[in-house]
Amino acid sequence: MLSGKKTVEALDRMEVMYPDARGELDYETPFQYLIAVILSAQATDVSVNKATPVLFKAYPTAEKLAAAPLESVMEKIKTIGLYRTKAKNIIKASQMLIDDFEGEVPKTIKEMMKLPGVGQKTANVVAGDLFGVPAIAVDTHLDRVSKRLRICKQSATVTEVEAALMKKIPKERWIQAHHTMILFGRYHCTARKPKCPDCPLLDLCAEGQQIMKKKIDLTK
DNA sequence: ATCCCGAGGG
DNA sequence: CCCTCTGGAT
Q1: Do A146 and A123 fall within a single domain?
Q2: Which domain range does residue A104 map to?
Q3: What is the pLDDT of residues A112-122, one digit of tens each?
Q4: How buried is residue A11: exposed, middle or buried, by Cβ count under 10 Å (0-12/13-18/19+)?
Q5: pTM, 2 dp
Q6: Which residues belong to any copy of the HhH-GPD domain (predicted)?
């Protein structure tokens, strides 16, 4: 298992690679950010950014989206995928914002998770980015990167990955670490063809060294 | 554990 | 063709 000290060292090097990492979803209001993050589940932010301008032009506020016809919303977000579930979720979530949260995005992770389509990961992202609530949202990239670096064990659940990261990374760095690790995972430590030969973290990475060995063995 | 689910990359 | 994408609900 990678120590806390080496985990921070790994994070430092990732921040050199991605100095100004931040979310890449487009939005204009807190409400729109919440919706965009809900829509980004199992989808690329590129595909979300392609659909949301049309959606937010028609339904820019919780009031508008809460009253929107299901068919119309489905059609506008169809290209994102998982569109039936997501259309229902964002309409219902908008209705709940009006009915239960005075039309505002709730300020706590616990309250946000009452909204349909909002789980631990989405709530962490939104609370962190909108309200500065210290949190580390573990998505597919953080999960993969953490396991390859052995920051946590291979079998760790999302909650366990989150706990390991929170333990090993200073609290004031949690939110930035999330964005940095996303970009590192998205563009460098990719799921399929990770750029291990060109990785500044290779000496810290158990998986990377294993992958490199296999390549050498294959060429042999 | 399984379903949802289109777009893009390899 | 197959895999992956800032997951969540059942």
Answers
A1: no
A2: 30-131
A3: 999 999 999 99
A4: buried
A5: 0.94
A6: 39-187
